Amino acid sequence: MIIVVPWLVKGGADLGALHHAEAAKNAGYKVMLIATENAPSPWAGRVPKGVGFIEFGLLSHALNDTQRMAVFARVMLDTPARVVHIINSQLGWEVLNRHGRSLTGIGMRIFASVFSDGRDEKGIMWSYPRFYFVDCWKLLSGVLCDSRWYPQDLIRQYGVPARKLHTVHFPLPTHTEPRYRSDDKAPVLWASRITESKRPELLLQIARKMPDVQFEVFGYATKPERHYEDVLRALPNIRLRGAYDSLEDVVAENSYSAFLYTSSWDGLPNVLLEAVAAGLPVVASAICGVPEFITTQTGYPVFDIDDADAYVAALREALESPQQRVQKWEAASALLRSQHSMDVFQRSLHSIPGYFS
């Protein structure tokens, strides 16, 4: 099996790619991960033992786009692999678009993971399905999503047959048994990439409305969005802590009352699984696949996702009701164990026609 990714950096899709590589190896496949962007992969050291890793993007940096396409297409046509899985790689999608009929003609089964639609900096809807599904979905043996919501949206938007769409929930991100760690008087934790889609400006509004509550922010911004860091630092009840490797380690080393998530779109984000596994109750924007995990029974979903007052109300409810917080976290922890185990993940993959057969 070849798993095609843009790179391996800290992120939910990247962690998902590593889970897929591990599951394929456990199923008896020889597995190769191929990174297609001309950029480093700081998570290369996390590639499972026995799985190959080629940084094609770095190796082909001197080629123009046409040459890179030709070389990568030849790699796909010449490989003995019969299964290819594309996860957020534009080059992978381009090869499927231009050479998919040749690849499927030699018996290759091609799968793709997609998670949600988003918007670019100009507010324009953006996703790989929007760019490629009209021409490509018929060439795919299957489409994998991390939520039940997105397959239904793909049927609505593109008329993709339900038989091609599969929900595969990512597994529990830790082998440690979850333990409740919420502390009434501790800061609220916010952790993510500091980027427009994660709504740092909404976090600022919330913090301004709650001057008596401290917020600790873990994350990093790329250069075009570095200004968000300066604005966050300026607020007295926000402490900017920088990048992090593991939310579990962050919570183990510090005390927090709750986890706050303000994103405007996502699939079923891995960070929410990590927050519950680390022992924190969750207040989250009820977008896309989030309500499948954070419900009124398992946490504090915010349905008016643009209203800072709605988040404030949810946080106040959580902070003022310790017993309720425990009950909601226990329900979320039970769902985490039943829906997001490695066994459930691997069984889901085995049930997809052609993926492990």
How would you describe the overall organization of this protein?
The chain starts with a strand and ends in a 7-residue tail after the last helix. It is globular. The chain has helices at residues 12-26, 56-59, 65-78, 90-105, 128-136, 149-158, 200-209, 227-234, 247-253, 270-277, 308-320, 322-339, 342-350; strands spanning 2-5, 32-35, 52-55, 83-87, 109-113, 118-119, 125-126, 142-145, 165-167, 188-191, 215-218, 238-242, 258-261, 282-285, 300-302. The protein is built from 13 helices and 15 strands. Helix 3 crosses helix 4 and helix 7 (200-209) crosses helix 11. A seven-stranded parallel sheet has the order 3-2-1-4-5-8-9, sandwiched between helices. The protein has a six-stranded parallel sheet with strand order 12-11-10-13-14-15, with helices on both faces. A two-stranded antiparallel ribbon has the order 6-7. The relative contact order is 0.12. It has 357 residues and is of the alpha/beta class.
**Average predicted local confidence, pLDDT:** 94
Distance from N terminus to C terminus (CA atoms, Å) equals 11 Å
Structural class: alpha/beta
Secondary-structure element string:
EHEEHHEHEEEHEHEEHEHEHEHEEHHH
Helix content: 25-40%
Q: Low-confidence stretches at least 5 residues in length (pLDDT < 50)?
A: none
Q: Report on the biggest sheet.
A: 7 strands, parallel
